[in-house]
Amino acid sequence: MRSRVGARLGSLCVVAAGFVFLALVLVSSANAKSPEYAGVEKCKRCHSRANLGGEEYPIWEKSKHAKVMELLKPGVAVEAKKAAKVDPQKDYTKDEKCLKCHTTGWGKPAEAKADLLNVQCEACHGPGSEYRKTTIMSKKKWQEDAKGMRAKAVEAGMIMPPTEEQCKQCHNSDSPFYKEFKFAERKAQIKHWKEKQ
Ligand code: HEC
Ligand code: HEC
Ligand code: HEC
Ligand code: HEC
Looking at the whole model, is its pTM more than 0.85? Predict the structure, then answer.
C-alpha cells in the first residue's frame, strides 16, 4: 500500500518537474527572442546595395529623419524655436524631453554599443536584433519564398508595412513643433522603397 502511494507521489513529482522544466524553457526562449534595437550601422551593411538587401540606406541617409539631432543644438532652427517658445540658445542634445522623439527606441532595450541617434530604420520598422540575422534576412531565402520569410521577420519583431500609429509616436502634439500629420502625404515624402509591380 505504502509503496503504491509512494509511486504515485513519485510520478506526480515527475509530472510537476516536467511542467517546471517546460515553463523554464518557455521563459528562456521568450527572453532569447525578445528583440532589441540594433542601430542603423547593422542595416547599412546589406541595405546599401541592390544585390544584398536593397538601396534604402543611401536614400534614408540624405533624409531629414537622419539628421534630427542637429535640431537640438543651440543656434539651430532659431526662428522656429522662438515661435514655439523653445530657448534657441539652449543645448537640448541631452534633454530627455526632446530625445524621446529625436532618437530611435528611446528607453527601450538595445544591443551593446548601438548608436541610436536620429530617426533610424528601426524607429519605423521595429527593433532589429532578431530579424536582421542572416537566418532571416537572406537574399536567397527571400527569392525562394518572400511571403514566408516576411512572416518570419514579422514574428521576430519587424514592422512591415509601418503604419500611421508608428509615425504618431513622434508626430503628435507633445512635440513643441507639431504640424498636422496626414499619413498618405507624409509617407510619400519619405519614399525609399520601389513601386509595387
Ligand atoms: C544580412 C543582410 C541584411 C541585414 C543585416 C538587414 N537586412 Fe533587411 N533585408 C535583407 C534582404 C536580403 C531582404 C529581402 C530583400 C528582397 O526583397 O529581396 C531584406 C528585407 C528587409 C525589409 C523588407 C521586408 C519586406 O516586407 O519586403 C525591411 C523592412 C528590412 N529588410 C529592414 C531591415 C532593417 C531595419 C535592418 C537593420 C536592423 C535590416 N533590414 C538588416 C538583408 C538584410
Ligand atoms: C513627441 C515627440 C517630440 C518631442 C517631445 C520633441 N520633438 Fe522636436 N520634432 C518632432 C517632430 C515629429 C518634428 C517634425 C514636425 C513636423 O514636421 O511635423 C519635430 C521638429 C523639430 C524641430 C524643427 C522645427 C522646424 O519647424 O524647423 C526642432 C528645432 C525640434 N523639433 C526641436 C525639439 C526640441 C528642442 C525639443 C525638446 C524641447 C523637441 N523637439 C521635442 C517630435 C518631437
Ligand atoms: C520614418 C519611417 C521609416 C524609416 C526611418 C525607414 N523606413 Fe523603410 N519603410 C517605411 C515605410 C512607410 C515603408 C513602405 C511600406 C509600404 O509598402 O507601404 C518602408 C519600406 C521599406 C522597405 C521595403 C522596400 C520595397 O521595395 O518594398 C525596406 C526594405 C525598408 N523600408 C528598409 C528600410 C531601411 C533599411 C531603413 C533605414 C536605412 C528604413 N527603411 C527607414 C518607413 C520607414
Ligand atoms: C522617432 C520619432 C519619429 C518617427 C517614428 C517618425 N518621425 Fe517623421 N519626423 C521626426 C522628426 C523629429 C522630424 C523633424 C525633421 C526636420 O524638421 O528636420 C520629422 C520629420 C518628418 C517629415 C518632414 C521631413 C521630410 O523628410 O520631408 C516627414 C515627411 C515625416 N517626418 C514623415 C514620417 C512618417 C511617414 C513616419 C512614419 C512612417 C514618421 N515620420 C515617423 C520624428 C519621427
Answer: yes
Domain residue ranges of the chain, discontinuous segments joined by +: 1-33, 35-189
State whether CATH 2.40.10.340 applies to domain 35-189: no
Per-residue pLDDT tens over the stretch 133-175 = 999 999 999 999 999 999 999 999 999 999 999 999 999 999 9
> What atom of ligand 2 comes closest to residue 171's alpha carbon?
12
Using the atom order of ligand 3, give the atom closest to the CA of residue 61: 38
Give ligand 2 pocket residues (Cβ under 6 A).
71-72, 77, 80-81, 86, 92, 95, 97-98, 100-102, 170-172, 174-177, 179
Transcribe the chain into DSSP letters. Answer: -HHHHHHHHHHHHHHHHHHHHHHHHHHHHHHHH---B--HHHHHTTTTSTTTT-SHHHHHHTSGGGGTTGGGSTTSSHHHHHHTT--TTS--TT-HHHHHHHBSSTTS-B-TT---BSS-HHHHH---TTTTSTTTS-HHHHHHHHHHHHHHHHHTT--SSPPHHHHHTTSSTTSTT-----HHHHHHHT--SPPP-
Nearest ligand to the CA atom of 197: 3
